[in-house]
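Lecture notes, unit on protein representations.

Consider one protein chain, 125 amino acids long.
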Amino acid sequence: MKKIIQTSNAPKAIGPYSQAIQAGNTLYISGQIPINPATSSIKEGGIKEQTHQVLENIGAILKEAGYAYENVVKCTCLLSDMDNFAAMNEVYGSYFQQDPPARAAYGVVKLPLGVLIEIECIAVK
């Protein structure tokens, strides 16, 4: 059985998808982009600021579902420019300091709304 996870502390879905789906003890979080949920605007600044916003959005969804960053087992990071990898990695690492999840990172041609980063993840209790 699946459960839809929805919180106003993360951006509303901008398409036909859910913020997250919980199936059993596994939580699947849709790709999050750096939209500030309070203002519905894209986080200003560079890759570091946008990465922080994305991970804060993920944290809000994790919390709504009763999970924490420690429960994340896999992330996929999409970057509009792989030259931003090192700066993204620095911020990302501050959220996963101990026993970080498995991860893939890709450079893509374009991301929604012209953002610099999108991250999706899977968490398990």
